[in-house]
Amino acid sequence: MESTLLNLPEPARAAEKNTSAPKNRDHSIPSFWVRDVPVFGDAILAPMDGFSDWPFRSLCRDLGSAMSYTEFVRAQHIVMAYEHMAARLTFDEVERPMVFQIYGDDPDELVAAALRVQDRQPDIIDINMGCPARKVVHNGAGVGLMRQPLKVARIFKKLSAALSIPITGKIRIGWDECRSYKLIARVVEENGGSLIAIHGRTKEQAYSGLADWDAIAEVKSAVKIPVIGNGDVKLAADIDKLKAYTGCDAVMIGRAAIGNPWIFSRLDREQVSPEMVDRMVRQHLERHLAFYGVRKGMILFRKHALQYLKLQHLPRAVRTKIITRENPEEFLELLEQAFALEESETQEN
After folding, report:
1. Please, how many CA atoms are within 13 Å of residue 211, restricted to the half-sphere of its CB?
2. Is residue 3 part of a domain?
């Protein structure tokens, strides 16, 4: 895998100026543009801490995700060159357009971090203004920035002046019932932002309740830059429903893609055969082991294995036995046995 890491020497590909258009897509007309970066497709994997790493992100990309967002990285860690953050900024050329997502609350620190990661040649840098996690918002970062529109204006004004690539933002509809989404969206646009992605829930909602698609539609009407809608996309048909309802340019899919990356190929989980699941688990595990090493890779893969297997007709005890294996060969052998048993039972019925 050709990688781009924070603290590694400039890779060989740096001499080749990328064309931004992903090389594994055969489209002649972009679905939309992020300033001068064309995007081919309308379904995008959401940046998710602990999930949007290279192994999973690249698989979703293979299946049709139109852009690649990294897991978010704290600006302070980038400035201080924390080695353990580097893996989050690893990507493949075929993932382009590639978006590095960073977060923080200090405008100057965000600029310093953005300038540093810009040297790694992403296509876009995104500012996270939507994370509701307490550890992120307690000092004003993530969705905490939505309570400070003047600071958001300073951040985007400084970033758009300092960077040579587009700067974008991902927001929620607000902190609580006092919703600031339209104001923040206009502030981002007026200060040089090139795209807004909006999750139709407040910080207080977190991931509960219904996403407000009307709010997404209002943001789309309020700005001229592209808008990506996010929230309550559970089935493949919901992609077109959200676009039709809000007029947004693309749809971001988070939790619904975990265990069903095929949603980017417009397939619902019940349309995915056991053979397809088996192949995907093997491919995903292979990338996990290559990326993280055997021990860490097996441990981190468990959360994915649970999601891949939970909708299969495997007894809980069988699923538990499979996912707790520490040896890849044992894991795959048990998995093969389980799928063979399931297929046999299906044929008998």
Report:
1. 21
2. no
For residues 218 and 183, membership in a common domain is answered with: yes
pTM score, two decimals?
A: 0.88
Range of the domain at 283: 273-348
Cβ neighbourhood burial of 84 (10 Å; 0-12, 13-18, 19+): exposed
For the range 16-25, what are the long-range contacts, defined as Cβ-Cβ under 8 Å and sequence gap of 24 or more?
A: 18/93, 18/96, 18/121, 18/123, 20/96, 20/97, 20/123, 21/96, 22/61, 22/66, 22/94, 22/95, 22/96, 22/97, 23/93, 23/94, 23/96, 24/61, 24/62, 24/94, 25/66
| Strand pairing class (196-202; 43-45) | unpaired
44 in a structural domain: yes
Could you give the number of structural domains in the chain? 2
Residue 57 corresponds to which amino acid?
R
Query: What pLDDT tens digit does each residue of the chain (349 aa) get?
Result: 444 443 322 322 322 333 333 344 446 799 999 999 999 999 999 999 999 999 999 999 999 999 999 999 999 999 987 676 788 899 999 999 999 999 999 999 999 999 999 999 999 999 999 999 999 998 899 999 999 999 999 999 999 999 999 999 999 999 887 789 999 999 999 999 999 999 999 998 888 889 999 999 999 999 999 999 999 999 999 999 999 999 999 999 999 999 999 999 999 999 999 889 999 999 999 999 999 999 999 999 999 998 998 766 678 888 888 888 889 999 888 888 877 766 665 555 5
Judge whether 92 and 123 are in contact, CB under 8 Å.
no
Options 60, 131, 178, 248, the catalytic residue: 131
Beta bridge mates, 270: none
| Residue 60 is a catalytic residue | no
Q: Which residues pair with 126 in a beta bridge?
A: 101, 168
Cis before 55? omega within 30: no
**Whether 180 and 320 share a structural domain:** no
d(Cα 260, Cα 320) in Å, to the nearest integer? Answer: 20
CB atoms within 10 A of CB 313: 11
